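The following block was generated as part of the benchmark described in Methods. Ligand: magnesium ion.
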Amino acid sequence: MRIASFTHDGRARWGLIEGDQMLDVTAVEADLPPTLMGALWRGLDDVAAIAQSAPRLPLDAVRLRAPIARPGKILAIGKNYHAHNKEMGSEAPASQLWFNKQTTAVAGPYDPLPYPKGATQLDYEGELVAVIGRTARHVAREDALSYVAGLCVGCDFSERVWQSKSATFILGKGQDGFAPFGPWLTTPDEAGPIEEMTVRTWVNGEIRQQDSCASMIHSLADQIAEVSSCMTLEPGDVIFTGTPAGVAAGMKPQAWLKPGDLVRIEITGLGALEIRIAA
Ligand code: MG
């Protein structure tokens, strides 16, 4: 299934995508929660069947939003691709390096990002993003992917000056609009093997990042096992899985984002984000 949060006629809703149509399950006479977050807590088992009686809207007539508007938490792993670590002049850490992006950083897949006041080193990081579908605690690596509701595309926007001000990264990673993801969730059964996906990022049509998710140092399953050994993951929690090489900070000369730039990030089978840096 491909599951999306969207607005239509000024109302926030969620539904399933089939071809070029949105099946508006929130319009069905069924006891379904009004948000996708609520639906994840309820469970999605019967949603495909319910959706068959849903009104159909043309996909281009709705505005797609971030699948989860206000996740309980947004966790992100850093330094998870060797080639990216090399371009940043750093080594792979001995263990998984985790930081938080703030829930107020969430943005939709096509929402412009206002250029942050005072920024000088605005950067993109195209990443595979996972949304948790059921409560996970002390999950074994072998079972970890069964806790994922869906996969999508994300950008771990980063302001490198603020990022380097403290070891936790969060001033440079947690700013408003710095966690766009979407354009919809693709369930793991439909998405296929993560190792066969490629992350690609373009800035103004120029390819900047291109690598296989198989290049991750710590796989998504490893990440869920590690994090769930320390805390409870809940439905709607979001995980950014790290970025490949090709960020602006690694270029010579460094090519920071500026107002007017268009960032496009695409992952095989999961769709694409398109984010304009606004003045
Ligand atoms: Mg990142």
